[in-house]
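Retro notes - structure team

What went well: the batch runner handled both jobs without manual restarts.
What didn't: labels got mixed up in the shared folder, which is why I'm recording both outputs here explicitly, each with its sequence directly above its tokens.

Job 1
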Amino acid sequence: MNLQIEPATPRDLGTLLQWRMEVLHAVFSIPIDTPLDALREANRRYYETELPRGGHLACFARLDGVRAGCGGVCFYPEMPSPDNPTGRCAYLMNIYTKPAFRGRGVGRAVVGWLVNEAKRRGISKIYLETSDAGRALYRALGFVDMPDMLKLPQAKTPGGTQP
């Protein structure tokens, strides 16, 4: 078994978009025939902006020469704090292994590569969101639950006021 990670470049835009849409359909249980043209275009603009400027790094995993998985990491600043004195953050996302290749180390290799790239950039605050299916892998790689975090759903406005 030959497993290799290759960084994506702006020249890979079409392939990145194809994989991104597959991930969104899988993670959000969106039927494959549901049109997502506006979301696809928003992702295109994101990649076109963030890949060249270094705000996003994406990769593909090849297993025996076949693209088997993908992943990405967003780099961004936050205010420095005691638990993140540099204020630099890495948010892992879009980590996906095609079903036929699962259980063969693809996800582990993608996450390891992305984490190493973040650490190489001096970033120590590295986090992600997970599905139930990915939780065991991430915990095995050392990720822990983030306490004291809340999320405001899109449809809600604090204090009950109208937007």
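Job 2
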Amino acid sequence: MQVLDDQKRLKIIAAAAELFAAQPFHKVLLSDVAEAAGVGKGTLYIYFKNKDDLYLSVLYSGFSQLLDQLRETIDQNLQDPMQNLESVIRELVRFAYQNPHMYELMRAVSWHQVAKHAEWGAKRAELRGLIESIIRQGIEGGVFDDPHPELTARFIPNLVRSVMIESSPAVDQYTLVEHILRFTRSALTAKEPKICLEK
């Protein structure tokens, strides 16, 4: 039985990510991936069942890295819900700009296909849970006003994803982050109750 090498697997995933981002899924050949990764084509089948499995592994790897980065950022600032939420948005956009191929891949992914993989569901739920916990902390502290934090926790990652997929290449990272933050602050900031004074 052959011993699997994590570094080799990651090298294959990185090479595949570049190829899938550069051309449509159906045009990427496993032989091209093997060549780009510097391994034999047969080696790919030791690590991945088929091209679909490799494709989903590329997406999952990027998503896992993103979530690890978010947790690390949030762990450094546990006191301020607004700052934590802003950190999540900044990290989501930063990751998108540093890894544009991931969003190109996500543009074409079939979520029905992804849903078959339990790891994906768990990671997506982990991201939603992280955002929801930040919002609930803000509600408890009177910083946020949100009757459905579980829904907002779904909106935020998809807002960033949609903007990245649809936005013009001319939009710089700073402008995009600030606009998303402005929108989110406006939607979540607790409003002071209006006092009606009788004449």
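One thing worth noting from job 2: Residues 51-75 form the longest helix (25 residues).
We'll revisit the folder naming next retro.
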